[in-house]
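REVIEWER CHECKLIST
Item 1: Sequence provided? yes
Item 2: Single chain? yes
Item 3: Sequence as submitted:
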Amino acid sequence: MDLYIYYRVPSNKASLLQRQVLALQAMLKQGTGVSAELKRRPQELEGKHTWMEIYRDVPPDFERVLNDTIATAGLDDVIEGERHSEHFMDFSSCA
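Item 4: Structure as written out by the authors:
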């Protein structure tokens, strides 16, 4: 199962967020082996961009590890509002 997390960030904090999330994802990859991506919507709305973290083939306890790591990463200082999480599975697994 894959984990998708999205949130809004002021455009003037984009570089800071990118550095923080890429460092977070590198730590998670080293600790869990989970591959990650960071994406951003191309358009800006009300001075903010929507960002998305994608984590592939996450193990059952991954969200706990992720949340513990996020607590020390300083993302709360950059993100406006909540981080929204959703799980998706491959279509072939749904059948």
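Item 5: Key structural point noted by reviewer: The chain has a mean pLDDT of 93.
Item 6: Recommendation: ____
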